């Protein structure tokens, strides 16, 4: 029986459950991560990581020394860590041996690059051989020399552990919370017992659990999982204990076939013939578009001189992979509403975007003679976005102080003169200044610039009703949920498309936490994407993505760091501001960076307030299980919605010991406990990263808040992917859970190559580009 002492004395941390007792970084400073926290002033002690960056200009960031710092073995586990390149390897040479990946060449699903001479210059690096999109994609930077390490525990059994979570040896996995438990590190200070909610159901029956986010009728415990709108006879019995849960889970599985819509979906997923047909249909439509003579004048303007409708090699490669390569099981599982999301179709629906893509593709098939000339210019540049500059780390210098002390805000009216800008903190500028560039803030009468006009056009050609599968949920709870600020101000949004017909009318003005809860209640799945800038935010927002995450994955997808641990609050806030400003409907969530919330609930509060004030996000996300329950409580009680994140928590990769699936075998119980505790603490949703599918399914049933899976199977309430993975912008080895829906990298490479070639051969600029 897990009583509150399980949490008060932190016994649960010490139940080593098959964890590597000596994960990486035994000597790493832990000041930010686990300091003797709450009462002590927060004093940054840089360098906070084992390898402080070198002074500017001294040595390359990814110097070999980092091998020594982290160890070769660890580095090999990190698919995001830019590695030293074999200098002799030519850029177009695929890796001889790579970690098995569905996106690498060879046996992993990506056909080798076709020979040159088909109109598209060779890509500097093919899938499967490059690292993050950050610094210097070089030949084969990620070809590991050994296969990934075996998982900590054997593959998950067909059913969940049968022991109740009250068993001390199983009620926690020891590190599912944040990956730093049970590894020999000093325990954290005890937490106030009254704040913690035991996850076991027996206690739930004795006490009225918190139901902050519990929707729907019925006096169910907060960890009840009767949330999905399934026929009552199909519901498994309410599991009050884990053993029951396992039983119920099994029952739920066996009844899957009884759910006609579900089984139909799965049949479709696994029907290659149907898929082929859909693909060909899509391609035909796409080809028809290529011939479409009805192009807008404004687009002709950008048309290259030498029209060549041949699609670039990049697309052929992309499609070839989709068609020919043996697709992995995981890809099939994650197939969205099948071909709906395939590019040609979506291009058709998004007319303007399709034409734009075509322009690029036509351009990509341009001058071949000059390829050799521009080859050099298309080589990956050594762009080191990683800051060598001052490293303030973005942490509050004094989290015990009031926010206003740390970052004073001057709430000045929008019309204020910019003359005072320099003297104010970034946050003080707020939207008054930024909104001019934010599509959501530009009134129609101000649409005078080319960009603004395009925005207005795009708004009028918003996604057709059939795409992508929009959660219709928002409707009921929002019906006429016109999100007009009662306080006036930027909520005018006069360029926002009118809520007219189709799904547009079903979408709320702004997705809010309760809409996500409604989705879950109705069994409607939805997608979250990361976004780090204005345009992606705008695009995803208009595509109907209800939640955008400004992830700390910006570390490796924007800043070029090797892990998310490096990104700071000060680095993330500007990105979050751009996204929040650009997103009209989406709920914008920002990750709290590593070190910015673990110290204490107060620290978490101050950091979250910064994101709310300075970036304008509507919610924050933080990683960890029961260890962060006090932080979640503090934030939610302060009016800050919190998205929790358990399973593989990248900020704890060094403690976890690499990129590993979490919650296998006996760890499952602890993970479930974490999920239940976080829901009880008030989190509005829960990310499950790299969690076995059956465990994620069980958690999804158990808690009333939406679960968002990434590498957690199909049974979570929602999915999330890093957008550069989803759209094929970055190269390199992809995690298994990634599916690429486009080849942006190929498109951009072609565009840049063609541009450079035309500049080189004098084709650009032409007369029409000249004033
Ligand atoms: N571009 C990008 N995509 C992501 O999914 C992502 C980021 N960046 N940055 C932050 C975290 C880190 N994440 C990661 C990183 C690596 C693996 C990975 O290598 N997984 C392997 C091994 C799994 C195993 O050992 O079982 C895989 O094949 O999925 C997974 C998640 C997810 N996040
Ligand atoms: C992968 C998602 C969930 C994330 O945390 C991030 O992008 O930072
Ligand atoms: Mg993150």
Helices and strands, with pairings:
Layout: H1 5-8, H2 31-34, H3 65-70, H4 72-77, H5 201-206, H6 242-254, H7 260-269, H8 272-291, H9 297-300, H10 313-323, H11 329-333, H12 343-349, H13 351-364, H14 371-378, H15 403-406, H16 426-434, H17 450-460, H18 474-478, H19 502-506, H20 513-522, E1 526-530, H21 534-542, E2 547-550, H22 554-557, H23 569-582, E3 587-591, H24 601-615, E4 619-623, H25 629-637, E5 642-647, H26 653-656, H27 667-681, E6 685-689, H28 693-702, E7 707-710, E8 718-721, H29 723-726, H30 744-761
Parallel strand pairs: 1-2, 1-8, 2-3, 3-4, 4-5, 5-6, 6-7, 7-8
Helix pairs in contact: 8-12, 12-13, 13-30, 14-30, 16-24, 21-23, 23-24, 24-25, 27-28
The structure holds 5,10-methenyl-6,7,8-trihydrofolic acid (MHF), 3-methyl-2-oxobutanoic acid (KIV) and magnesium ion.
Magnesium ion is lined by residues 551-553, 564, 591.
Number of helices: 30
Mean pLDDT: 59
How many structural domains can be distinguished in the coordinates? 2
Q: What is the CATH class of the largest domain?
A: Alpha Beta
- Which CATH architecture of the largest domain would you pick? Alpha-Beta Barrel
Detail the poorly predicted runs.
1-76, 82-272, 285-469, 472-482, 489-502
Radius of gyration: 26 Å
Question: N-to-C terminal Cα separation, in Å?
Answer: 79 Å
Strand content: under 5%
Rough outline: globular
Task: Give the number of DSSP strands.
Answer: 8
Q: Structural class, judged by helices and strands?
A: mainly alpha
Cofactor: Mg(2+)
EC number: 2.1.2.11
Organism: Kribbella jejuensis
Protein name: 3-methyl-2-oxobutanoate hydroxymethyltransferase
């Amino acid at each position: 029986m897990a009583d509150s002492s399980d949490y008060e004395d932190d016994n649960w941390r010490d139940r080593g459950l098959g964890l590597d007792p000596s994960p990486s970084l035994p000597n790493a400073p832990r000041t930010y991560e686990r300091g003797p926290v709450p009462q002590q002033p927060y004093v940054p002690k840089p360098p906070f990581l084992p390898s402080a960056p070198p002074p500017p200009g001294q040595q390359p960031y990814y110097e070999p020394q980092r091998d020594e710092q982290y160890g070769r073995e660890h580095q090999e586990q990190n698919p995001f860590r830019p590695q030293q390149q074999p200098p002799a390897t030519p850029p177009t040479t695929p890796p001889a041996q790579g970690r098995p990946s569905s996106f690498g060449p060879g046996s992993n699903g990506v056909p080798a690059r076709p020979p040159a001479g088909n109109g598209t210059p060779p890509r500097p690096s093919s899938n499967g051989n490059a690292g993050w999109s950050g610094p210097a994609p070089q030949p084969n930077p990620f070809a590991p020399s050994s296969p990934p390490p075996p998982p900590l525990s054997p593959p998950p059994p067909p059913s969940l552990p049968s022991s109740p979570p009250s068993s001390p040896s199983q009620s926690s996995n020891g590190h599912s919370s944040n990956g730093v438990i049970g590894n020999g590190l000093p325990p954290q200070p005890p937490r106030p017992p009254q704040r913690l909610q035991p996850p076991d159901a027996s206690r739930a029956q004795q006490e009225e659990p918190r139901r902050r986010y519990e929707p729907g009728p019925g006096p169910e415990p907060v960890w009840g999982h009767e949330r999905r709108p399934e026929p009552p006879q199909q519901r498994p019995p309410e599991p009050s204990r884990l053993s029951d849960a396992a039983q119920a889970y099994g029952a739920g599985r066996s009844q899957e076939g009884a759910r006609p819509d579900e089984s139909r979906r799965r049949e479709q997923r696994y029907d290659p013939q149907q898929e082929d047909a859909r693909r060909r249909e899509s391609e035909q439509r796409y080809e028809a578009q290529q011939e479409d003579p009805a192009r807008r004048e404004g687009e002709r303007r950008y048309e290259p001189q030498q029209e060549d409708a041949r699609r670039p090699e990049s697309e052929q490669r992309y499609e070839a992979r989709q068609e020919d390569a043996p697709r992995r099981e995981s890809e099939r599982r994650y197939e969205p509403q099948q071909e709906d999301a395939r590019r040609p179709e979506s291009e058709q629906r998004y007319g303007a975007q399709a034409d734009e893509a075509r322009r690029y593709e036509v351009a990509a098939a341009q001058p071949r003679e000059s390829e050799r000339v521009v080859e050099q210019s298309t080589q990956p540049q050594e762009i080191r976005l990683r800051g060598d500059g001052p490293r303030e780390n973005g942490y509050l210098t004094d989290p015990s102080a009031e926010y206003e002390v740390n970052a004073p805000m001057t709430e000045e009216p929008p019309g204020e003169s910019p003359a005072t800008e320099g003297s104010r903190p970034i946050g003080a500028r707020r939207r008054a200044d930024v909104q001019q560039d934010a599509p959501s803030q530009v009134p129609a009468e101000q649409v005078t610039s080319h960009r603004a006009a395009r925005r207005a056009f795009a708004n009028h050609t918003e996604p057709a009703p059939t795409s992508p599968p929009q959660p219709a949920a928002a409707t009921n709870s929002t019906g006429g949920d016109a999100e007009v600020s009662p306080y006036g101000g930027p909520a005018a949004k006069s360029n926002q498309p009118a809520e007219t017909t189709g799904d547009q009318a079903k979408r709320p003005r702004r997705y809010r936490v309760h809409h996500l809860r409604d989705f879950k209640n109705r069994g409607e799945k939805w997608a979250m994407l990361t976004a780090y800038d204005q345009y992606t935010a705008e695009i995803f927002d208009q595509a109907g993505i209800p939640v955008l995450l400004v992830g700390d994955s910006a570390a490796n997808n924007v800043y070029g760091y090797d892990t998310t641990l490096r990104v700071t609050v000060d680095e993330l806030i500007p990105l979050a501001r751009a996204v929040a400003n650009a997103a009209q409907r989406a709920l914008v969530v920002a990750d709290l960076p590593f070190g910015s919330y673990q110290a204490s609930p107060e620290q978490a509060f101050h950091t979250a307030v910064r994101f709310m004030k300075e970036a304008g996000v509507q919610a924050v996300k933080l990683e960890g299980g029961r260890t962060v329950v006090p932080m979640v409580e503090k934030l939610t009680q302060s009016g800050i919605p919190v998205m929790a994140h358990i399973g593989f928590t990248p900020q704890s990769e060094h403690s976890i010991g690499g990129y590993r699936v979490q919650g296998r075998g006996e760890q499952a119980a602890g993970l479930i406990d974490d999920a239940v505790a976080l829901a009880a603490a008030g989190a509005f949703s829960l990310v499950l990263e790299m969690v076995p599918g059956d465990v994620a399914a069980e958690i999804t049933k158990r808690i009333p808040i939406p679960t968002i899976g990434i590498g957690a199977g199909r049974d979570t309430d929602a999915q999330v992917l890093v957008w550069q993975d989803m759209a094929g912008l970055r190269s390199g080895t992809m995690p298994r859970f990634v599916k690429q829906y486009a080849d942006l990298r190929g498109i951009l490479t072609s565009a840049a190559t063609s541009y450079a070639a035309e500049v080189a051969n004098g084709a650009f600029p032409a007369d029409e580009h000249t004033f």
